[in-house]
UniProtKB/TrEMBL annotation:
EC number: 3.4.21.-
Keywords: Disulfide bond, Hydrolase, Protease, Serine protease, Signal
The protein's name: Trypsin-like serine protease
Source domain of life: Bacteria
SUPFAM superfamilies in the cross-refs: Trypsin-like serine proteases (SSF50494)
InterPro entries per the UniProt record, alphabetical: Peptidase_S1_PA, Peptidase_S1_PA_chymotrypsin, Ser/Thr_Proteases_Immune/Dev, Trypsin_dom, TRYPSIN_HIS, TRYPSIN_SER
PROSITE patterns on file: TRYPSIN_DOM (PS50240), TRYPSIN_HIS (PS00134), TRYPSIN_SER (PS00135)
PANTHER family referenced in this protein's UniProt entry, alphabetically: TRYPTASE-RELATED
GO terms classed as biological process: proteolysis
Length: 239
């Protein structure tokens, strides 16, 4: 099953942005025709064992990310704008109780919807594990996100149902998941799809709900980013 997206949507939908008084995230055009945004998780459950799922507040938008090191968070590129010096903060922990300022943003090469955030201080939480290159395990996984700032962190379940190349994102490889419990909400963009403690995808966008309330979502595949991630961390380790 392939979900084609005409736009990569930011983690805050138009109505959610207006209700919260926050500015539109990069790529949102008020009044333009658009699919639902990659959206805390509706109909999910508390995610008390995922300290690596981070709340990202940058450039006036609310998104989600994954802590992959003491000072490093992986999120969607559309969440942090195009400049390296993004303004904002990252919070981690089940109730986002640990906060650090963002001091640098580095975008993935080739236009993939992924970016690394470097924080000024350590987040002090256990990071998620990165995958090795290869096929995605054929088993259910979990997704999580901070959505509308709901506490504690919420998580849902999904399975990988397909892959494709995004021609609008430099042929980046994308994973398509189908939710089996819960659904993404505005603010979940950049959030993880993981199987156990291993991160496989970064949420980029979602499709519409089916009659049963399930959602197909598009994730940037993490394994293709591994060389860039390790190289970037090695070249930019300030602490």
């Amino acid at each position: 099953m392939r979900v084609r997206m005409r736009r990569i949507l930011a983690g805050i939908g138009v109505s959610a942005a207006l209700a919260s008084g926050m500015a539109f995230a990069p790529g949102i055009v008020p009044g333009a025709e658009q699919l639902p945004s990659a959206h805390a998780v509706e109909g999910g459950r508390d995610a008390l064992w995922q300290p690596w799922t981070a709340k990202v507040t940058a450039e006036g938008s609310l998104c989600t990310g994954s802590v992959i090191g003491p000072h490093w968070v992986l999120t969607a590129a559309h969440c942090v704008g195009e400049e390296e010096a993004a303004h904002g903060a990252v919070s981690a922990g089940a109730r986002a109780e640990r906060t650090a300022a963002i001091d640098r943003v580095i975008h993935a090469p080739g236009g993939a919807d992924a970016a690394l955030i470097h924080t000024a201080t350590s987040l002090g939480v256990r990071p998620v594990s990165l995958p090795v290159p290869g096929p995605i395990p054929h088993q259910p996984g979990q997704f999580s996100g901070w959505g509308h700032g709901r506490y504690p962190l919420q998580t849902g379940s999904a399975t990988v149902v397909g892959e494709y190349r995004d021609h609008h994102r430099g042929e980046a490889r994308m994973l398509v998941t189908h939710s089996t419990r819960g659904a993404q909400e505005p603010g979940d963009s950049g959030g993880p799809f993981h199987i156990g403690p291993v991160l496989y995808g970064v949420l980029s966008s979602t499709g519409a709900r089916d009659p049963q309330g399930h959602v197909d979502a598009n994730y940037t595949a993490v394994d293709q980013l591994i060389p860039w991630i390790y190289r970037t961390i090695g070249e930019n380790s300030f602490h």
